[in-house]
Amino acid sequence: MKIKKIKINAKTPYDVIIGKGILSDLAAELPENLGKTAVIITDNNVLPLYEPVVRKSLKEAGFSVISYTFESGEKHKTPKELIKILNFLADNKVTRSDFIIALGGGIVGDMAGFAAGVYLRGIKYVQVPTTFLAAVDSSVGGKTAVNLNAGKNLAGMFYQPAITICDTDTFKTLDDITFADGVSEAVKHGFILDEAFFRKLQSRTREEYMNEIVEIVARNVEIKGRIVEADEFEQGKRQLLNFGHTAAHAIEKCTDHAVSHGQAVATGMVIMARAAYKKGFCNADFSMEIKEAFSGFKSIFDTDITAEEMAEAALSDKKRSGEKINIVIPESIGNCVIKQIEVSELLEIFKLGLEK
Predict the structure, then answer these.
(1) Which of 311, 318, 317 is nearest to 345 (CA)?
(2) What is the pTM of this model?
(3) Pick from 2, 31, 189, 298: most CB atoms within 10 A?
(4) What is the pLDDT of residues 298-351, one digit of tens each?
């Protein structure tokens, strides 16, 4: 069994374990002295697929196990649901000598991680991503959050897990759109910092991804991990990970999350690459090469949302600082930079990015 282990040297260091078929032996990968009771937090889609497997492993290792399940989907990543989780923990007398397991995709990881960070002023938690997107993105780096009416992830905290354990076999149950969500973030990591990796991912099919999935996830974790180590609290370099996200979050908000995060990021990267070239921020239009990276998938690069609607939605973006906002632009493939612009310039940016 091939297993990759990557150390994330954040303020609270932890390992990311990646392998095939490791979920059934999850308890063996847990750090010592983690706790007595494991609280599995998951959603109703993941519950029947993987909760029994994780529960069995934990119970056989001597842990007490309880589970909390909420409805899947971005619409349920809310303060109201977070309070329900916290009340569940309190009602079940969970203590600081217990721990949470976030079993699921990015929404589960965000919610469970946030709950762990604020309950009793902080208890330990374990990230167990079951989607490609969560494995390469949200399960690494300690970002946790819920959505507010004004926008995505506007209430949250940085709170690192005790360990992240990723069984890539769980990706086999994903539908094609959900799998492609992970492709978006993988392509983004290569585009911003590793041209060779970006070229390696171009035009791959799902089958070709799965043939090397442990190595692909590991490389993504290495890229993101090094950025997190350099800038854990997103004061500088970590903002590079937001390439395409200003447009993406606007698309998600304007469609009430009918467009998935990964699809929105793919579209957002194309918009920003095209706009950056037209504005003269870079010497080449990389939008076609980004599109080519998704040729093996059905990705959405067209949207009916107007530039005006996107600009209005972006006013709530957490990357905004007063009348300025940071955007990520490509100087070349594998070399992106952070550029601060006036919020008033966003409308032009979106107009240029949406024009063919």
Answers:
(1) 311
(2) 0.95
(3) 189
(4) 878 889 999 999 999 988 777 777 789 999 999 999 999 999 999 999 999 999
CA-to-CA distance for 99 and 87, rounded, in angstroms?
Answer: 15
Helical H segments across the chain, by residue range: 26-29, 47-60, 79-91, 106-118, 132-136, 176-193, 195-201, 206-211, 213-230, 245-254, 261-278, 287-292, 307-314, 346-354
The amino acid sitting at 174 is: L
119 vs 55: CA distance, rounded Å: 22
- Please give the torsion angle defined by the CA atoms of residues 130, 136, 139 and 141, in that order, rounded to the nearest 10 degrees: 180
> DSSP assignment, residue 319?
T
pLDDT tens track for 261-273 = 999 999 999 999 9
Nearest partner of 43 among 90, 89, 75, 15, judged by Cα:
75
